[in-house]
Amino acid sequence: MEELAKLEAERGTEGYAPNGIVMSGSAEMAGRKKGKRERVASNEMCTFLILNISSLQLISVNMIAYRSQYGSVNPAGIIAPAIVATFVSTAVAVA
Fold first, then answer.
1. 73 membership: H or E segment, kind and range
2. How large is the C-alpha radius of gyration of the chain?
């Protein structure tokens, strides 16, 4: 995220500009308060965040141990549904 913020500063995005300097001269940006620096996530930041949130989660050995302890016939049966759910959520995030 820090590298993406640096990229936004290089692009001249208002919220990431050094010292609050507005690179664009639009009237909308000029009307804002001078001391307020508002940061808005870029499309790249949102994509990075969504892919990280929907990524494959490590299946806890503890969960399999708990299922075994409580008499589950197939304690490792949670692995396949977890991988399918991860695939679906990542595909939706990319789309």
1. none
2. 22
CA 79 from chain center: how many Å? 24
Give the alpha-carbon dihedral of 54, 58, 59, 65, to 10 degrees. Answer: -150
Q: CA 85, CA 29: separation in Å to the nearest integer?
A: 42
Q: What type of residue is 52?
A: N
User: Is a pLDDT exceeding 90 seen at residue 70?
Assistant: yes
Pick the closest to residue 44 from 71, 10, 18 (CA basis).
10
Residue 76 has pLDDT above 80, yes or no: yes
* Residue 41 contacts residue 12 (beta carbons within 8 Å): no
Alpha helices in the chain (DSSP H): 2-11, 27-30, 43-53, 61-69, 79-94
Interaxial angle between packed helices 43-53 and 2-11, expressed in degrees from 0 to 180 and rounded to the nearest 10? 170
- Whether pTM > 0.90 for this model: the answer is no
